[in-house]
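User: Second chain of the day. Same drill as before.
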Amino acid sequence: MLSSIKKFLKSEDGPTAVEYAVMLALIVIVCIAAVRAIGTSANAQFTNIAGQIAP
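Assistant: Same format as last time:
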């Protein structure tokens, strides 16, 4: 088990995995921000439409 960990740390796969994890984290952050922005805008539009439809 210890030898497997040493091989992983010495190989090039470790830094590559970290780079992919960082890229994935950035993509997730951007997606969350976009969904929040779109959600806020959509909520405002639905509220506006509901106000116009209501008697």
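The two ends are 71 Å apart (CA to CA).

User: Great, on to the next one.
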